[in-house]
Amino acid sequence: MLELRDVDTPKPGPDEVLIKVAAAGVNRADLLQRQGHYRLPPGASEIPGLEVSGTIAAVGRDVSNWEVDDLCVALLAGGGYAEYVAVPAGQVVPPPLGVDLVAAAGVIEVAATVYSNIELIGLTEGDTFLVHGGAGGIGSFAIPYAKSIGATVITTAGSDDKLDYCRSIGADHAFSYRGDWVSAVREVAHHGIHMILDIVGAKYLSDHVELLATDGALVNIGLQGGRKGTIDLASLEARRGLVTASLLRARPVEQKAAICRGLVQHVWPLIADNTIRLPPVAVFPLAEAPAAHARLESGDNIGKVILSVTR
Fold this sequence. Notes:
The protein is of the alpha/beta class. The chain is built from ten helices and 13 strands.
């Protein structure tokens, strides 16, 4: 159940700012939290919401780089489905130039996830990159970002409309995951995949290892296809493959702040000059959060689902 209730307005700590929320992004972690399948990081708000846009309403005593009424977007550990949220100042940045506050609410969480993991692996020009769900939030950002690096981008999606959308934002190859996508990927990636950004998990684990190039990396960031699987270690060894995983929400504040600085320096300019085109957004009022969750769960959505908070 998702219920709209009145709660006390949070007070910012010494290193925090209070944001008057304009809009909040809806992410799959919110669905899992609602269902009781997501263990919250210590100290995280029980209110869902991992990203917001809005204006600064108050600043903590040790914060010097923000002033009241400044426009901002923020990466959260929780609490975004609300009129106000307190956030460590290092996780708050200006919106990308030219992006309105509603659309900006759906940028920072996916951007931080994609950017931090691609930086970790060191994807470079000429590499081959695979991401599933190319029409969703992660895929819609990962495709043009990997393409901007100079990688060959492969993705999957579940309908012709979504496959066409993936190609329109830069995917070199887009295949239906309802068919034999593994053979299709092998057909176009003769030397294997250098980086797989994996939102699926166990269901595709063994296939992903078999698709890796020599020195390739499988990076898990989601468990839509289950959490327990098996792999052929001999196959992984033969490829000198790397299998790793990350969870943005549980990272320390210092790491999140560093990622946010990297977004402003390296990613926001790509949005400003339209190298990365932001995806379509489906906007729901905050009171209709259940309908927003249903839209994301349906699998029919292309792009991001946003909650409009400002009354």
